[in-house]
Design a protein that fits this description.
single chain; 2 domains; alpha/beta; 8 helices; Rossmann fold; 6-stranded antiparallel β-sheet; Elongation Factor Tu (Ef-tu), domain 3; 5-stranded parallel β-sheet
C-alpha cells in the first residue's frame, strides 16, 4: 500500500446522522383555495407510524440546513404514499415556499413520527367524535380511512368548522370518496358522518363548534345524545384557542383527558396546543 493510500485509509468516513430527514419526491399537489392545498410524497419502506400521528417535514434552507415544521400525516398507516394538508402563509418561512412545490420536487421527511391523536390513547367507547377547525382536519383524514377505527366504534362523527365554504372542500370530498373506498367503504357505511359549519360565508350550519356544542345544536342536528363519558370519546385539533375551548367543554361534560401513557375519554394534540 502506498503512503497516499495509507493516508486515505486513515481518514475517517464522514459521520452520518441516523436521525437526519430523508429526501422524498412530491407525487401530486392539489390546491383548494388561495390558502389551502394538499400534497402527496413518496414513503420510505422503513417509515412506520400510527394512524393519527404527525412528523416533521420541510425544505432545505439556503445554507443547506433543513427547515422543518410539524405536519399531521393525513394518509392512513397502510397507504404506500404519505399525504399532507397545509395552509399557505405568504410570509411563512416554510409554507411560503412549500405552496409552490410541483410533482417531481423534493421535500424533507423526518424519521420520528409521534402524537396523541391516536386510537390507542382512548379507552373503548361507542361513539368517536373528531372535532376540527381549518387544517386541524388533517390528522382525522388518517383514522377515517383506517379499518381499525370502524372495528372499535359504532359511530364516527367528524366535525369541521372553517371560515368559508371553499375551505371545507378537502374534508367534504374525502368523506364522499370513502364510501367507494375498497378497504373501508363498506365498514364506514352507516358509521361515518361529517358535520360541517362556517363562521363567515353562508352555510347550512353557521357558528363556531364550541357554540354548537354548548347550545346542543350539534347533537340535535345529528340526532344523538349529548356527551356522555360512558359512551363518547373525542379527539380535538384546530387553533390553540379552539383546542382549549373544546377541551374545557369535554371536561365540563365529565370526560377525562387521555394520553399515550394513560388512555382516557378525549385527547388533544399537545404539539399544536401551545
Amino acid at each position: 500500500m502506498s503512503a497516499d493510500a495509507s493516508a486515505a485509509a486513515a481518514v475517517p468516513a464522514p459521520k452520518v446522522n441516523p436521525n437526519a430527514p430523508t429526501e422524498e419526491t412530491v407525487l401530486s399537489v392539489e390546491h383548494y383555495t388561495d390558502r389551502l392545498f394538499r400534497f402527496r410524497i413518496t414513503r420510505p419502506q422503513s417509515f412506520r407510524f400510527r394512524t393519527g400521528e404527525f412528523v416533521m417535514i420541510g425544505l432545505p434552507r439556503e445554507d443547506g440546513k433543513p427547515l422543518l415544521r410539524a405536519y399531521s400525516i393525513a394518509s392512513p398507516a397502510w397507504d404506500e404514499e404519505l399525504e399532507f394538508y397545509s395552509i399557505k402563509v405568504p410570509d411563512g418561512p416554510l409554507t411560503s415556499r412549500l405552496q409552490s412545490i410541483q410533482p417531481g420536487d423534493k421535500v424533507l421527511l423526518g424519521k420520528k413520527p409521534t402524537g396523541t391523536l391516536v386510537l390507542d390513547a382512548l379507552t373503548p367507547g361507542k361513539r368517536l367524535y373528531m372535532f376540527s377547525t381549518g387544517t386541524g382536519f388533517a390528522p382525522f383524514a388518517s383514522p377515517i380511512r383506517d379499518p381499525d377505527t370502524y372495528e372499535r366504534y359504532d359511530e364516527v362523527i367528524v366535525t369541521h368548522t372553517c371560515r368559508d365554504n371553499g375551505e371545507l372542500a378537502y374534508s367534504t370530498n374525502l368523506v364522499r370518496d370513502i364510501a367507494n373506498d375498497p378497504l373501508v367503504g363498506e365498514m364506514s357505511e352507516g358509521k361515518l358522518r361529517l358535520y360541517t359549519s362556517c363562521t363567515r360565508t353562508p352555510h347550512p350550519t353557521m357558528g363556531r363548534i364550541t357554540t354548537l356544542i354548548e347550545t346542543g345544536k350539534l347533537f340535535e342536528d345529528l340526532g344523538v345524545p349529548k356527551l356522555d363519558p360512558a359512551t363518547d370519546r373525542a379527539m380535538i385539533c384546530g387553533s390553540m384557542e379552539m383546542i382549549q375551548d373544546v377541551k374545557a367543554l369535554m371536561i365540563a361534560n365529565g370526560l377525562t383527558e387521555g394520553s399515550n401513557a394513560a388512555p382516557a375519554e378525549f385527547v388533544i394534540e399537545k404539539a399544536f396546543a401551545g
